[in-house]
Design brief:
Elements (H helix, E strand, L loop, with lengths): L1 H14 L16 E12 L4 H8 L3 H15 L4 E9 L1 H5 L11 E7 L3 E7 L10 E12 L2 E12 L2 E15 L8
Antiparallel strand pairs: 1-2, 1-7, 3-4, 4-5, 5-6, 6-7
Amino acid sequence: MKRTLIVFSAVLLTAAAVQAAGGLQPLHVRLGLWQSTVNNQLGGGLPPDMQARLAAMPPEQRARIEAMMQKQFNGTPQNSTFKSCLTQKDLNESAPWGSGTKCNWTVITSTSSDLEVKGTGCDAGKNQGMNSEFHIKIHVVDSEHVKATFDGTMSGNGHTMTMNGNYTSEWVAATCPADTQ
């Protein structure tokens, strides 16, 4: 789940450079290496299928995984910092915030300094019989600094999980190391 949140956050950074297409206006940001700090919270506890998988694990393995996941699913804020590369290819995609999330995206606002999108019917949780949706607001402070907020819900099978958070990104360099996505 932590990897999913980091990937989701990286997708948010990519959105900061959306290319004008279908009424979208490009956000005014620099290409290259960006560093992002993400603060997020998950609420609602573990879905029933995850609880069942944990119950079937050997006690030592279950204890390790429960300890690792406890903070994430009880609403305790989680912070992470990562670097990602924003390329011209990202600018040429018509909906880069949707890569990897497979949602039906609707643009609410699109200016050179602000982008707001809503995703419905997302694949996240679909295999577990859950419906999910996400809401993302991105604000370009200046061409080297971006702030965003996001929230989402996954619900189904009598269970609802929530996610919300924010991130700040800062441009680091015009070139990206080979190992940076």
